[in-house]
Amino acid sequence: xxxxVRVYGGQESGGLRLPAAQASRRNLxxxxxxxxxxxxxxxxxxxxxxxxxxxxFLTRRQLQADLxxxxxxxxxxxxxxxxxxxxxxxxxxxxxxxxxLIIADSWNHRLVGYRLRDLGRNDCExxxxxxxxxPGVVDANQGNxxxxxxxxxxxxxxAVLADxxxxxxxxxxxxxxxxxxQSATREPAELVLGQDDPSHREDNRGRLGGDSFRWPHAIDxxxxxxxxxxxxxxxxxxxxxxxxxxxxxxxxxxxxxxxNSEWPxxxxxxxxxxxxxxxxxxxxxxxxxxxxxxxxxxxxxxxTGCGEKAQRxxxxxxxxxxxxxxxxxxxxxxxxxxxxxxxxxxxIAIADTGNNRIVxxxxxx
Length: 365
Prior knowledge:
Blueprint: E1 4-8, E2 33-37, E3 40-45, E4 50-54, E5 67-69, E6 91-97, E7 100-105, E8 110-115, E9 128-130, E10 155-161, E11 164-169, E12 174-178, E13 191-193, E14 219-222, E15 225-230, E16 235-240, E17 250-252, E18 276-282, E19 285-290, E20 295-299, E21 312-314, E22 338-344, E23 347-352, E24 357-362
Antiparallel strand pairs: 1-24, 2-3, 3-4, 4-5, 6-7, 7-8, 8-9, 10-11, 11-12, 12-13, 14-15, 15-16, 16-17, 18-19, 19-20, 20-21, 22-23, 23-24
């Protein structure tokens, strides 16, 4: 049976108590984002308003962080630190892009960037901002009553893909695309997905369909296909060559793009989702953090249509189970509202948000 190989945050693998949440080198509080970067692990410790780095995360002996961003030290947890030029407020996604670390600083309604060369010390100052006119502004939609093609409201996830730079602008119920991440720092988005124009922000653009969103979150893709987690509609949408705002080609978690039903507290099987917040694509496979079902689903090949079924489940004994920590005590192979996921080769890292920890699994048979 596939099982976790490492646990970061509080108790080590096999612990039965909920890990502590008090900020420290070791503890986490509601982490929502996790990224594998070579031999390092990057964690958005969301509840502590910081991003942590763990070097050599698969082989190290001490399960504690080496570097903190967003706070002056490992014991602090203040939103925005309190200076927005240094601090973070509910970070949810972090990725290395070229020579930069870019972070979705969601409740400051912006993306921020740090130069990798500056990351040798804690609490370095951010060097770029996307979605706000300057580092000192942190209002939703830049303080305006309506959104536009430059503003953000709760940007929870982003992706640098072959055909552009995508941002899940959850509070505006849309996805924005720029031709590349550098242009996002100075130009309006070239494409708005999920709304009729850049000034609209209605749930499902006023009508449910395959071209609408309710709180879009994670984004990832491979080749000419991108996947967008649409947790408010209990589904993941896939688009082939999304060069215009249009209907999705792929729907996961619902029988069709015209349905968004939820089956609370009931067996879901391998083809239904409840609040899927996180996704990851790697080597023609797709992993989905099926948050409210307390599991991660893995598709061994990328879905190409509607109603396809996952081949693997992590966090539950089978596809019919859905309970938080399997309705039992916390164990190394249980999950409680997993929010973020990253998959590289046969390693999958899960932000086990409700358990205040990161769990590392191997997918080898």
